[in-house]
Amino acid sequence: MAVRFIACAVGITAVGVVGGCSTPFDPPRDLPPSFARSVPPHADSSSRSVYRSNPGPDEGTLKLAPGASADEFVRFALYHSPRVEAAYQKWIAAAERLPQARSLPDPRLNFGFFLDEVETRTGAQQARVGVSQSLPWPGLLGAREDAASMAARAAWRQFEAARLEVTERVVSTLHEVAYLDAAVRITGENLELLRSFEEVVRARYRVGAGSHPELIRVQVELGQLEDRLAQLVALRPTYVADLNAALNRPTDAPVPTLGPLPGRVVSIDGPALSEIARQSNPVLLALDERIEEQRIRGEVARKEGLPDFTVGLDYIVTDEAMNSSSSESGDDPIFLSFGIKVPIWRDKYDAGVREAFARRLAVSHERTDEANRVTAAIQRAWFEHADADRRARLFETTLIPKAEESLRASLAGFRSDEASFLDLLDTERTLLEFAVAAERAKADRGQALARLNRLVGESVPTRSAGAAEHTDLQDAGDGPDEGTP
């Protein structure tokens, strides 16, 4: 009897052991087909994770080459960003809920021994072994999987939002570094120009053609410009640290001097961008997925209040009968059973339905509030972008050319003693301020565009700025010849 009982128990247990022989520590496999349900339709389902099981030939050693473009900086950041990786792993975790939600409850294996043997016509019953399986109400498992699918899609949208946020951060910091490098270059050019003025004034003062106040004034101006340049140079490591933080590199990793970044101007207005954002902003789309998830969870709560069914099979180990002449002596009976859960405590099930409905309303209002915030932020970013473009074009096409013309006129007047040296200094200072302000406007334009791309959720339609990217202040004049009155 004992041998038969052990063999029966081992046979039933082997079903569960064979079905669950894998462990969470097995080598990673490709994403299962069920993960397709966790990615929204028409979304890019390719993994951008640094932990990809099959990375491309160049992805494992992705580097930033000297002279890398802004797109290459962004690609590097997306691949190495811990924020993006965290969002990706959260999506993986949410997607792993799907096979858990759609699975049946584990079968129950029962063993029992008769402490007082039950003597029957066919023999004494010694032990009992059985297995039972619960079956939820039809459609419950599918609804749970649908809800988990919506939650995973919301996590994917958050992953997209993280990539957009990192992209904006990198692009904005690149524009800040490019502006600083341009300001250093322009200030250095002005410093050289002012030094040439100082040499001329010193030479004129030695021959008695110039005044001492003029020499002191140019030296004071020269000292202020040197201090300004020193401040700009000292500020660069701070901006470089911000950029390296966005790239997930050491803060002291070198960043070469950046040239002018391509200037782009949005070609549609703010209301049109807001309309696009309603269909593509990942935060809004994630809230849409969560609203649908709560609707489905209401169905889950309702179906959980319906009966569950249980089917079982028991095997009773029986010894030989005392009267061995019986035809059925020693036969082991098999018992088939059915059960049903009676959900009579309705309060908890009704409360579950009301909870899902309240959560759905809460997410709906949260979505409305977020849509209003995104719309307002787009309008502000569009204005800042358009205003920065207006300022950049004003400086580059009108004010800087006029300032250069004024500098040339003042320089000619100074050479012919028709203009004072103070007029020449004021003109040179004005040109410096205009040139730096133009670079600031271009940086603001690029940063506002990066913010619009994040708020809209995709690259917005743009056109080329079509303006000169920088102004060489040395073209304003080579400085007066020494000894020229």
Question: How would you describe this protein?
Answer:
The chain starts with a helix and ends in a 21-residue tail after the last strand. It folds into two domains: 340 residues, Outer membrane efflux proteins (OEP), CATH 1.20.1600; 65 residues. Strands 1-2-4-5 form a four-stranded antiparallel beta sheet, covered by helices on one side. The protein contains ten helices and six strands. 60% of the residues lie in helices and 10% in strands. By secondary structure, the protein is of the alpha+beta class.
Element layout with pairings:
Blueprint: H1 2-19, H2 70-80, H3 82-95, H4 97-101, E1 108-120, E2 123-135, H5 140-206, H6 212-247, E3 264-266, H7 270-280, H8 282-304, E4 309-318, E5 334-340, H9 346-415, H10 421-456, E6 462-464
Antiparallel strand pairs: 1-2, 2-4, 3-6, 4-5
Jot down its keywords:
Outer membrane efflux proteins (OEP); disordered C terminus; alpha+beta; elongated
CATH architecture of the largest domain: Up-down Bundle
CATH homologous superfamily designation of the largest domain: Outer membrane efflux proteins (OEP)
CATH class of the largest domain: Mainly Alpha
For the record, the count of structural domains works out to 2
- What portion of residues belong to β-strands? 5-15%
Summed over residues and divided by their number, the pLDDT gives a mean of 81
Helix content: 55-70%
Largest sheet: 4 strands, antiparallel
The largest beta-sheet arranges its strands as 1-2-4-5
Instruction: Compute the number of helices.
Output: 10
Distance between the termini: 126 Å
The helix/strand class is alpha+beta
General shape: elongated
Instruction: Report Rg.
Output: 38 Å
Low-confidence stretches: 12-29, 49-55, 57-61, 467-485
Give the beta-strand count.
6
| CATH-defined fold name of the largest domain | Outer membrane efflux proteins (OEP)
- SSE order: HHHHEEHHEHHEEHHE
